[in-house]
Write a structure and sequence with these properties.
This protein has about 450 residues and is an alpha+beta fold. It has 3 domains: about 170 residues, Hypothetical protein af1432; about 190 residues, Deoxyuridine triphosphatase (dUTPase) (Deoxyuridine 5'-Triphosphate Nucleotidohydrolase, Chain A, Distorted Sandwich), CATH 2.70.40; about 45 residues. Helices cover about 40% and strands about 20% of the residues. The chain contains 17 helices and 18 strands. The strands form 5 sheets. Strands 6, 11, 12, 14 and 16 form a 5-stranded antiparallel β-sheet that branches. Strand 4 and strand 5 form a beta hairpin. The longest helix is centred in the middle third of the chain and has 23 residues. It starts with a helix and ends with a helix. About 25% of the residues are buried.
């Protein structure tokens, strides 16, 4: 399909040819997106939507009048795709929730129902949008990695849609036509020698070489977990091993007592962040002179909140690192799970949406015990726990409750499964002794069955 010159002329008259778009023009980007969709044998209305996919962001607001004009120019199907694409945040597009044969898509402030066909077409436009930008040399390596990860996520979603269809579905040819992403995701080799999938990589950008240390969380709590729990308690082990540990960037002794004239007492051992620590930041002064100057001047170590008259109970500790997660993933920041329970402080829990904003994390230490010195060390216990979580886990879920009743077939099945599990766990032995391995055995059987599928 050749690009409709009349549609291109509309964009030209609107000034798309003079709008800068990452080293090129917006018009060139829109035309390139449409050409990729045509190369992938997408239907004509999808290619037209790709050509105008930024129309309601750059050219016109989606009023009733403008939407009617767009429908008259490119057709109803293409206009709906443009409207949805312009009003759906990138992170929401990859987090649509299945509801029967349809999907629930967060579009602006509302949630709309779309068919699997429409959702697949939106994903194809999103993929073409990212791949067109990947073909340029003007993007920084870090931005290109984000685009690669985005393509990988979208391709996986498209493949999931394909698997849910019957053979011969409209997108079977596109997904198996040999059209791979322009630049394949670059896997990162993990510490255990495996190569994680690109969309499951936590990226950390250090602002100085001697800041926080990050390591995988330990299911055994460094060998301190009870032996019986390590062998038989799956929920305990899963929680311990989720995510990553963060260790303090400085050695500091810190205590809080509201009854003292000045509530805080602290002693930073050594130099904290030395001039050598910030050498990396100094090297950025040409590009970011103000940031470099302010950083050296203040040299972040520790911020203590409150004053003599109204002390607060929170200290802030800077990690000195920028954290980045793949599209649709955030970071839950909290105290280490099942560790450091006797510490005089806890980490205030927060969720950082580090996919759309690469973010340096400040740890808020909220003191719960007064007059007790916290000895925080780089080489000591982890100070915080960060866990990647999908965004839909906190903004898409709803609660459904109902009583277990004999006439409710599904509820009866749930009740029967629960009875069977408890019978096997507590009464399977002839002597009535408790069988501790029931959970572990069932978990292994279920996981093996899932792997086989």
């Amino acid at each position: 399909m050749e690009i409709d010159r009349e549609l291109v002329d509309v964009l030209t008259r609107a000034g798309a040819g003079s709008v800068n778009h990452h080293g090129s023009t917006l018009l060139a980007h829109l035309s390139g997106t449409a050409r990729l969709l045509d190369l992938w044998n997408c239907p004509p209305h999808v290619c037209k939507a790709g050509l105008w996919h930024s129309f309601y962001s750059w050219v016109a607001d989606p009023t009733e009048r403008s939407r009617a004009a767009v429908r008259a120019a490119i057709g109803d199907e293409a206009e709906v795709l443009i409207y949805l694409f312009c009003h759906t945040a990138p992170e929401d597009l990859v987090c649509a929730q299945h509801d029967g044969d349809e999907l629930l898509l967060k579009c602006g402030a509302t949630v709309v129902r779309v068919s699997a066909d429409t959702y697949a077409q939106l994903l194809l436009i999103d993929r073409a949008n990212a791949e067109e930008m990947l073909q340029r040399e003007t993007f920084a390596p870090s931005h290109r990695e984000v685009l690669r990860a985005r393509c990988a996520v979208v391709m996986r979603l498209l493949e999931d849609i394909e698997r849910s269809r019957q053979p011969g579905c409209p997108y079977h040819e596109q997904l198996h036509s040999g059209q791979e992403p322009a630049l394949s995701p670059t896997p990162t080799t993990d510490s255990d020698g495996t190569e994680p999938v690109a969309e499951f990589v936590l990226r950390i950008w250090r602002l100085h070489p001697n800041g926080v240390r990050v390591s995988r969380a330990d299911p055994t709590l460094g060998g301190l977990a009870p032996e019986s729990a390590r062998q038989f308690c799956g929920p305990y082990i899963h929680a311990n091993g989720a995510g990553f540990y963060v260790y303090s960037p400085i050695d500091v002794d810190l205590s809080l007592d509201p009854d003292r004239p000045f509530p805080w007492e602290w002693n930073i051992l050594g130099e904290g962040y030395t001039d050598e620590d910030v050498a990396v930041v100094k090297s950025m002064r040409i590009q970011h002179p103000r940031f470099e100057r302010d950083f050296i001047k203040r040299r972040p170590k520790l911020f203590l909140s409150g004053d003599d008259t109204e002390p607060k109970h929170t200290a802030q500790l800077w990690t000195g690192c920028i954290f980045e997660t793949p599209p649709g993933w955030s970071l839950l920041v909290r105290s280490p799970i099942n560790r450091g329970l006797d510490a005089p402080f806890r980490i205030q829990e927060s969720i950082i949406e580090s996919d759309w904003l690469r973010y340096d994390i400040w740890l808020n230490l909220e003191f719960m015990k007064f007059g007790v010195e916290a000895q925080i060390r780089r080489a000591g216990e982890p100070i915080a726990h960060i866990i990647p979580i999908p965004r839909q886990s906190y903004d898409r879920w709803h609660v459904q409750e109902r009583m277990v009743a004999p006439e409710d077939e599904e509820a009866q099945q749930v009740f029967d499964d629960w009875i069977d599990y408890n019978w096997e766990k507590f009464h399977s032995r002839a002597d009535g002794a408790r069988e501790q391995r029931t959970y572990a055995r069932r978990r292994k059987r279920l996981r093996d069955r899932v792997r086989d599928v």
